[in-house]
Amino acid sequence: MPGPLIIHAIGSLGDVAPPILLGRELRLRGHQVRVIAGERYAPLVADAGLEHRPLGIDFEELVPVPSWQVWSDGKGLAHTMRDGWRRLRPALETMLSETDAACIGAQAILSSTLAAVGYHIGESHRIPYASLQMQPWEPTREFPHSMAFSGGWSGGWSGGLTNRLGYTLVDQVLWQLTRSAVNRWRTTSLGLDPLPWYGPANRARRQQIPVLCAFSPHVVTPPDDWGSHVHVTGYWFAEGPTDWEPTPGLVDFLGAGPPPVYVGFGSWQPEDEARVHALACSALRGAGVRGVLQGRSLETSDPHRYGTDMFVVGRIPHEWLFPQTAAVVHHGGAGTTGAGLRAGVPNVVCPFQVDQLFWGTRVAALGAGPRPLPVTHLRADVLGSAISTAVRDPGMRAAAAMLGERLRAERGIERACDVIEDCVRHPVIPGQADH
């Protein structure tokens, strides 16, 4: 009997949930699937009927979320990057060893490009590896790297060489930060040669290791300079009913008036969320709309603490809630943006950092929302104006609805499984014929 397919899922919920759904579909096709993910995601893995191997690292705890004041002062990026790396560095080799142990007897490994762990495991265990990307990581002349995006995309750029060099820069920053620890692990634990200065990303591209992009070609058109090994499959969403049920209070609130506007920033929610909610309530009331606010346990204990026109929820399935809203306000994470666009409602993106400005700019370029509003110096009147536009501009609402129809018609998760099964039948082993 073939060994399990390994899914190495790291990051926050938006990074982990789509690969788990991919594993669920692979299981339904008859494959044995093992998911390596943080302990907090064990219930998600179990609900999908998959085997779970825990990681000792909790990525949501690794990246401390500053206060709203730190973000609005423009110091949030430096704060999170500095403290996140300080916490990750001593735990990196433990994560690598845990992953290696969980891959014994595996048939293939599917892993995030961000970690590049799958490349080393594939080379050591002599099994195929495919890269899972929630945002574009493959070099192109058409647009800058999503993790180093500074705005300006309305469909493409003329600075092709500059764009492409940006991918090399991001690869090198990540590789040089982890190079000593990874090479020590490769030599002492895996029995492999250390990698040179250019790192695993360059080797993987030369070998045309398969890449699965978990976003839609309707949102990011595949550039002409991407090879045939890069597959933009469409978003990975589960079809059919789930066991999750809303509270009666939320159902009553949704039915008691016009569709509300959702405001939530996922794992990027600042620690002083009462201040965030005060800003959000002011913006929502200024736009003349009701609101559903994402909160934590202390906030959700009293859903109407901000008034009868507001309802506070905890983490909630976006695919259930978003279609019942007039618009969604969020941070612009890859998964949340995909869910918002698929719901067919306008998206107001308030990016914090990393790839979020990239997605917010794509939303605006597609006409499915106003231009992104970075949280730095964000004010209630500015957010309220953007919300008002989102719920009342007929062209924007029509564009969002049309895009939602196209995304709901995609079968991204099925296409991704087809690609994976082809990769298993025609394996490309990392490190082979590379020297």
Automatic annotation (TrEMBL):
InterPro entries per the UniProt record, alphabetical: EryCIII-like_C, Glycosyltransferase_28, GlycoTrans_28_N, UDP_glucos_trans
Top-rank lineage group of the source organism: Bacteria
Domain Glycosyltransferase family 28 N-terminal as annotated: residue spans: 6-143
Protein name: Glycosyltransferase
Xref: PANTHER family: STEROL 3-BETA-GLUCOSYLTRANSFERASE (PTHR48050), STEROL 3-BETA-GLUCOSYLTRANSFERASE UGT80A2 (PTHR48050:SF13)
Domain Erythromycin biosynthesis protein CIII-like C-terminal: start-end pairs: 312-406
Annotated Pfam families: EryCIII-like_C, Glyco_transf_28
